[in-house]
Amino acid sequence: MKYSKIVTLICFLFVGVSFSQTIDPLSIYRAEKEKKFDLVHTKLKVDFNFNNKTLNGEEWVTAKPHFYASSVFELDAKAMIIHAITLNNKDLTYTYDDYTLKINLPKVYKKNETFTIYIRYTAQPEKVRQQGSAAITDAKGLYFINADGSDKNKPTQIWTQGETESSSCWFPTIDSPNQKTTQEIYITVPNKYKTLSNGTLMSQENKGNQRTDYWKLDQKHAPYLFFMGVGEYEIVKDSYKNIPVNYYVEPAYKEVAKDIFGLTPEMIGFFAKITGVEYPWSKYSQIVGRDYVSGAMENTTAVIHGERAYQMPGQLIDDNVQENTIAHEIFHHWFGNLVTTESWSNLTLNESFANYSEYLWREYKYGKDNADAHLFEDITGYKNSQSEDKKLVRFQYADKEDMFDAVSYNKGGAILHMLRKYLGDEAFFEGLNVYLTENKYKAAEVHQLRLAFEKVSGKDLNWFFNQWYFGSGHPKVQVSYDYNTLEKTVTINIYQTQQNEFKFPLAIDMFQGDKRTRYNVFVDGNDASFTFGFQGKSPTLLLVNADGVVLGDFQENKVLSDYVNQLKYAQNYVHKREALLEVAKSQENKDAFEAIANAMNDDFYKIRLLALENINLVNKFSKRNVINKIKRIATNDKKTLVQAAAIETLGKLTDPELRPIFLKALESKSYTVLGKALVAMYYIDKAYAIKKSKEIPSEVKEIIKTPLTRIYLDEKDETEMVFIAKDVLSGMFLSNDKKVQALYKRAYDQISISNNTMAIQNLVNDIVAKGVEFKQFNFDKIGINLMREMVQKQNKANTANKIKNVAIIKEAIGKLAK
C-alpha cells in the first residue's frame, strides 16, 4: 500500500474508533490472529447489481484445522446476506451477526483433514460499518464508481480494496494477513467492460450481452491481496522476459500509458537482481481506478493506482510523480505478497521495505544524490508526523489502521538504510535473499528478518533491532569540537540528549581545503568523544553524520564561513541543502551571495533549483553576470523544473527586457515552465499574459491551476471564479506549500463574497465532496464551519444574488451535516 501523504492540518484531526471509557485501547496487546483453521483454496463466482451496488456471489472455500480438531468453522463476512451454506450438497446450520459467520460442520475435523464449504451470498458494501484510516480513507471493500452512469464526466467502474481486512466485505474468508490461499474467480460483466483480477486470465465466455472472465492464481497469497477491477479500459501491453506486463487505462491515456508505467519491466528486473529472487508471479498488471481510497495497492499481480497516476506529456517531462509509487508496489510483490507480515503489528515487513525500494530504485536509476534527496523528504515527513513515541513494531495500538503511518513507512525505510550501511551491501542483499527464500509463500515476523541477517553476516543484531524496531524515537545529538593546535588534534564530542540511549556507526569527514578524510566511528553511549590528528593547518570543515545515514537530529554551532565551506565541499545532499539554506540568510555578505550563485552550477538539479529559489537579486552583489547565468538556465538547463525556477526568479525582477525569455518559455512543452512563464509575463505585460491564459486548453488549465489562480485573483476576474472554485479546498488544506495554502485562502475569501452563483456552487460542491472523503479527519465539521462563514460573508457583501447564493450554501451545509 502506498498511502497519499496528507501532511497538513487534517492529519491532526483524526478521531479514532470509539472504545469503552474503562479500557485504554493502547493497553490491549494486539497478537497475531490465532490460526484455528488454514485456508487452502478460494473459488468465487460473482456478478453485480449496478443499481443496488451489490454483488451476487457463490463461494467454494477449502480449509483445514491448523492443529486442534474442531467442528465450528468461523469466517469473516461483513454486512452480507447469506442465502445458503452447504457441504457435499447438504445444508449446514450457522449463526451470523453481520461480522462473523460461524458454520457448524457435520463432524469434528482433525489436523490436515480438508473440507470445502459452499456459500451463496449477497455482498452489500454500502452497508459496511467499519471505518478507514489516514492511509486508506474508506474500508467497505467493494466500490461502485458512477454505477448508474449519471455523471457524464466519470466512467462507470468497479474495484476492490482489501487491506487491511476488507476483502471480507465482498466474500467470506479468514481475513487475516497470516492466512494464505490459492484462488479462482469467475467475473460476469456486460460485454463492454474489461476485467482484471489476480493471476492469469484462463478463459472468457460470452453469453448474450454478458461475458464471464475466469481468472486463476495457483500460488498462495493473503486474502487482503484479492482484487477485482471492472471498467471500460484500454489494455496497453508490455512484458518482462516472458511475463505479461499490462497497463489498464482509460482510452484518453492509451498513448501516454507507457510514458507513465513504462519503467515497470526494468524495475521488476532490478528488484529481482538485487534480491536474488526472480519475480515469482505469472503476470504484472496495473490499473487506474477513479475515486480510489488511497495512493495505490499491491494486490498480487493486479496493482491499482489512484487517479494521480494519470499525467499528460507536459507533466511527465517535468517529473513522473507516480514513479516512486510504481516501484513501491512492485517491490511489495516480494515483501508483502511473497512473504507477508503475520500481523499488522509487524507491518514494517511489508511497508518499510516497499518504502525503501523507492530509494533503491532512485539510486540505481538516477544516482545517489537523487536517492538521498528522496530519503531526506521521507525522514522529514517522519519527523513532522509527531510520532517519536511510536515503535516500529507495535503490539499496542488503538486500531490496526493506525499502523499505516510515517513510522511504518518513512522511518522504517530509513532504518533499513542504516542496516544496509552497517552490514554492507553484499551482506544486506544476501540477507534479503535468505529471508525471502526461507519464508516464501508464508507469513513472517520481524525476528525472522533479524535471524536471516544474522545467519548471513555472523553478527549479533539484537542491539540494532531492540533500539530501532522495538524501541521508539531517534538520537538527538549535540556536537562540539575541541581543537589542540599544539598537538594538532581535534576532538569531536557527541552528547545524546534524548531519554533512551542509542548506539550507532557514524561517519565523520574532516576537510582541509578540498581534501577530505573520512573517519568511521561507533557511538556506544550517550556521551562519546573521538580525537583525530591532522597535518598542516587546522581543518576548514568538520561534518558529522557525513553520509547522512544516521536517522537523528544533530545540533552544531556553526558560523557563516563553516556553511559556505559546507556548501562548497560537502558530498551529501542533506548537508549541501542545510548549508545553502543557512548561507541564503546572509546574502548581504559577498562570499555568501557568490556561494549561492555558484550552487546554481551544482550537478544535482535539486541543489540548482534550491539556489534559484533562494538567491537574492536585489542586493548590491547582484551583478549582471549572475542574472545572465539565470537567463541561460531558464532556457538551457536539462531539467525543466530548474528552468521553471529560473523563470520564476527572473520574474521577480519585473524587467521588460526579459520578455523574450518569457515568450520562449510560453512555448515550452513543460506545464511547470508554462505556468511560471505566465505569471512572470503577467507582471510585465498583463494583457498578453491574460490573453495567453485564455487560449490554454481546459485540460491544461486544470494542471497549471495554481499560477492561473494567482493571475485571476490579482485581476479579480469574475469570469474565472467558476474555474478557480473547483478545487479550492485541496489547495487550502492538502498542499504542503504555505504559499499555495495562502493563495487558495485568498480564493476562498474572494469567492465567498462573489456574486457568481456558479462559482459559489462549485466551491460548496468541493467542500461537501472533501468533507465526505475526509470525514474521519473531522473535515465535514471544517467544511460546515467554512460554509457558515460563507453565509456571513454573503450577507455582509449584500450581493445581488445573495438570496440564491445563501440558499445554495445552506443546502450544502445540510447535505454535509447528515
From TrEMBL:
Q: Where is the Aminopeptidase N-like N-terminal domain?
A: 41-225
- Which CDD domains does the record match to this protein? M1_APN_like
**Peptidase M1 membrane alanine aminopeptidase domain boundaries:** 263-468
Q: List the keywords (alphabetical).
A: Aminopeptidase, Hydrolase, Metal-binding, Metalloprotease, Protease, Signal, Zinc
Write down the EC number: 3.4.11.2
Renumbered to this chain, the signal peptide range is 1-20
Report the catalytic activity: Release of an N-terminal amino acid, Xaa-|-Yaa- from a peptide, amide or arylamide. Xaa is preferably Ala, but may be most amino acids including Pro (slow action). When a terminal hydrophobic residue is followed by a prolyl residue, the two may be released as an intact Xaa-Pro dipeptide
A Pfam family annotated for this UniProt entry: HEAT_2
Identify the cofactor(s).
Answer: Zn(2+)
Domain of life here? Bacteria
Group of enzyme by EC? hydrolase
The record's listing under PANTHER family reads:
PROTEASE M1 ZINC METALLOPROTEASE, PUROMYCIN-SENSITIVE AMINOPEPTIDASE-RELATED
Protein family = Belongs to the peptidase M1 family.
In its UniProt entry, what is this protein called? Aminopeptidase N
User: What organism does the UniProt record list as the source?
Assistant: Asprobacillus argus
Lineage here is:
Bacteria, Pseudomonadati, Bacteroidota, Flavobacteriia, Flavobacteriales
